[in-house]
């Protein structure tokens, strides 16, 4: 691999990670909920894996599962505590809930290292697959293939949540809870399944991020940016399209890192705000739906 290629593989790898994060966020949003607090699952996943590896000396590969489990456990708490909330009240509750684990981790210095964060997090160890040695920890190309595989896995779950029988139940809950309950759909069960699945996958994203970056600190992994980015990618790409969230990530993240970041080093994040405005005004169903309409018009 040429020296200059590593930056592109790193950008592609992070595009896959954020695409998976957008899929995970939208899995919960398909029930009609707009979450502003998925950074809680991401941060718990990052800290859960990092601290488990640090204290228990386990393989980072096992740490990933524990990170996902930490996110899922908080998802269960969400499902129980926020059971009767809807609309803007639920959105604000999810936003406020990010502060709970962040404040605990920030102040429990004897265990979490507080505001100093956890540094020196081990990279994912290489895997020997017969004659092939796959280094997903240090090699940018290996990281890309790992995150691409993870993206495809989450994409398959997201597609099932749209087109399968489970997806029809989710759609019924989103459109009308009373009608869905009348035809035999377990409304709370459908919401619970999607929320915990979304939280587990988001926790996995956080755990992968921790081992790829090598450090975590509360302001980094519990930031509003982590909650906002999957929302932006999904709305721009298309909430109700099987590949919409990843399409948003594929377009916006490389543009941000390779173009806007160079032009606006201190204010490139404002581009995401502009994207939301443009998407709502010009592409209310996302660019995936817009592209589908253009293709149909060409072939019809």
What class do helices, strands and sheet pairing give? mainly alpha
Radius of gyration: 19 Å
Largest sheet: 2 strands, antiparallel
Low-confidence stretches: none
What overall geometry do the principal axes of the alpha carbons give?
Answer: globular
Number of helices: 15
The portion of residues forming beta strands comes to: under 5%
Trace the largest sheet across and list its strands.
1-4
Number of domains: 1
Average of pLDDT: 90
Tell me the span between the first and last alpha carbons. Answer: 44 Å
Indicate the percent of residues in helices.
over 70%
Give me the count of strands. Answer: 4
Q: What is the chain-wise order of helices and strands?
A: HHHHHHEEEHHHHEHHHHH
Features:
300 residues, 15 helices, mainly alpha, two-stranded antiparallel sheet, two-stranded antiparallel ribbon, single chain
What does the model show?
The chain is mainly α. The protein has one domain. It is built from 15 helices and four strands. Strands 1-4 form a two-stranded antiparallel ribbon. It has a two-stranded antiparallel ribbon with strand order 2-3.
Brief synopsis:
The protein has about 300 residues and is mainly alpha-helical. It has 15 helices and four strands.
């Amino acid at each position: 691999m040429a020296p200059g290629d590593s930056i592109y593989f790193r950008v592609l790898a992070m595009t896959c990670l954020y695409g998976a994060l957008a899929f995970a966020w939208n899995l919960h949003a398909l029930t009609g909920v707009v979450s502003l607090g998925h950074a809680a699952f991401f941060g718990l996943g990052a800290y859960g894996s990092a601290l488990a590896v640090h204290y228990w000396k386990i393989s980072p590969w096992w740490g990933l599962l524990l990170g996902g489990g930490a996110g899922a456990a908080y998802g269960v708490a969400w499902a129980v505590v926020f059971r009767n909330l809807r609309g803007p009240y639920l959105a604000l509750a999810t936003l406020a809930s990010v502060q709970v684990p962040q404040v605990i981790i920030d102040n429990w210095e004897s265990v979490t290292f507080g505001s100093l964060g956890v540094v020196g997090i081990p990279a994912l160890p290489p895997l020997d697959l017969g004659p092939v040695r796959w280094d997903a920890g240090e090699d940018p190309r290996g990281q890309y293939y790992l995150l691409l595989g993870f993206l495809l896995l989450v994409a398959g779950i997201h597609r099932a949540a749209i087109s399968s029988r489970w997806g029809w139940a989710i759609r019924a809950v989103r459109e009308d809870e009373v009608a869905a309950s009348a035809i035999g759909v377990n409304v709370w069960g459908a919401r619970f399944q999607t929320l915990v699945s979304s939280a587990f996958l988001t926790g996995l994203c956080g755990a992968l991020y921790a081992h790829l970056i090598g450090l975590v600190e509360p302001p980094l992994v519990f930031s509003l940016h982590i909650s906002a980015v999957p929302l932006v990618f999904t709305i721009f790409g298309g909430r109700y399209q099987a590949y919409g969230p990843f399409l948003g990530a594929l377009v916006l993240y490389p543009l941000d890192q390779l173009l806007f970041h160079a032009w606006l080093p201190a204010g490139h994040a404002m581009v995401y705000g502009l994207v939301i405005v443009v998407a709502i005004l010009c592409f209310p169903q996302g660019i995936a739906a817009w592209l589908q309409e253009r293709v149909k018009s060409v072939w019809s």
